[in-house]
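Quick one: structure tokens for this chain, please?
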Amino acid sequence: MALVRVAAAQLDVVVGDLEGNLARIVEAYSRAEDAGCDLVAFPELALTGYPPEDLLLRPAFVAQAAEALGKLAARTGATAAVVGYPDAGHDLSNAAAVCARGKVHGVYRKRLLPNYAVFDERRYFTPGSADGPLFVVGGVRVAVSVCEDAWSPGGPLTAQAAGGAELAVNISASPFHAGRQREREAMLSTRAADAGVPLVYVNLVGGQDELVFDGSSMVFDEWGRLVARAAAFKEDLLVVDLDVNPGYRHRLLDPRGRATGAPLPSVAVSEARPHDRSAPGRIAAAPGPVAEVYEALVLGTRDYARKNGFERVVLGLSGGVDSALVAAVAVDALGPEAVVGVLMPSRFTSEASITDASALASNLGIETITLPIEAAHAALLEILDSPFEGGDPGVAGENVQARVRGILLMALSNRFGWLVLTTGNKSEMATGYATLYGDMAGGFAVLKDVPKTLVYALVEERNARAGRDVVPRAIVEKPPSAELRPDQRDDDSLPAYPVLDPILERYVEGDRSVAEIEAEGFDAAVVRRVAGLVDMNEYKRRQAPPGVRVSPKAFGKDRRLPITNRWPG
């Protein structure tokens, strides 16, 4: 039996910031070294950030990433570092380098390249062709793999165990969606048990455009039991002592991981050294189903603003539940001093909405600006009176109000350099119940992937955290309304959200046909109407700002449908 001390360093890196990412990696490496670790693992493509997308098409970028790897290797001592980077060999690979004692001892190239959902790795990388080598660290034969390589039954991890691995290290950049952490834990537990080796899994953390990486790095023993788990949604260095039995012993008891393959070549990296068993590992609490979505929204908003250089954000405060949730997320992400709420009442805005918005702002401690839009709205309707032939402007007139508000928010953004946060939710984006160049105007759509029914659950989560109604009950309990005409309610134009959202989930996220959804018992006329609204508003969504992805299929990188499309669904 060998005792090895391993660390999973989940970091929040920035795509393209090679020097900054290197500094972050070196700092974490120093802490692992000070903790006496035999090995520390960093996330997939940690040196470049993930996903680097078409930066990989620039040879200078790839060359500078290689230079950064050389600098890291030169800094290493007895602690082995496993770090992700793009490797330019005979072709470009998504690779993991093993560094120690001042040099790179070997490279593993990712074999299974995902090309689904938000992933486009086959656009950039060629798959690796070898499962090895194994790296002998602290007297233990260590297999290295990259993200997807550990996801498939019978994949590289199984082959590595069959080739003599006694410990597996998987470096990953696995994006968050609701329930993903629990899926990963179940899957990785199974892989460790099937291979019959302990498994160290390190995940990226942080926001990158629409994506959020939740961290939640984990360590499993050879039976698939969870030994340690890092914090979710923040940087963490998870250090744990592992008892690594000779591979054959476990396989005699559980033959799933028998070493039936040819032995993989091995590379000596470091000698065994004594440990005092002072790092038994810790299992951080995993947030619940609603709490994890809230944390993802906060992290995604914080990183999008900060990584793109915005010091303050601005949003319209309508007195409705969506803008209330966006304001609360922004405050938790950036602090109340960095958030500005703008009240823009028209003649259709109720006094209750103004009161509720003001109370919310007071509870959150944010600055407010009031810019009445009645004069601008009236002036624009007067200009349009001739082409509208003096008739009722209808929806076009209503949407002028939203566009006036968009103009004012963008003017503040232009003048002060603030980032405009839009407040529309996924239900509205799906059905087109949002005004192009109006309430869709802005730089970041916090709730773009959050259906309306979940908005209410998230508000209750935020209030529960505070132990009081930070979002006033009046906001939560009032019927949703855009307040663009007298006595307007959302359900005048849309099915009630508890009816609408399940249909949208099936049609948008589940790719179910209209007939399949009808067969589940939903009203046929409602299903056809909802599907029609989704399809006809694809052009709007193409022009929407990016927003945090929290579902298995978000509008944006996930869902790529043609705008011109006559398939009836």
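The longest strand covers residues 2-10.
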